[in-house]
Specification:
Helix content: under 10%
Number of strands: 11
Structural class: mainly beta
Radius of gyration: 13 Å
Order of helices and strands: EEEEEEEEEEE
Largest sheet: 7 strands, mixed
Length: 124
Amino acid sequence: QVQLVESGGGSVQAGESLTLSCKASTDLRRTNSMGWRRQAPGKEREGVAAVDPSDGTTYYADSVKGRFTISQDNAKNTIYLQMNDLKPDDTAMYYCVAATGGNLGWIYNEYNYWGQGTQVTVSS
């Protein structure tokens, strides 16, 4: 079992920044992938960003490339999502996710562990 605890959400104005944190209950390198997914009201969940903790490979949705940065701190078992130039369309519940085992992770769009979520609201 992997527990994930998110923090850092909030309400900001368009153009501002936020940093989300996710602390895992396990060594990040025991996972295949760690990342963030989000769900806006009335929309399906979508992948935002992910990182392969073993080699640092990162993945981003086209909608956030150049604005969001995912990073990891293995010593703290924590990943971060630095979000810059936020837009109203970024308003959503953001979930930290982890993948352990085969056929899971960003490429497969499947994760087997989810945090409780943290709300990000961006007003224009």
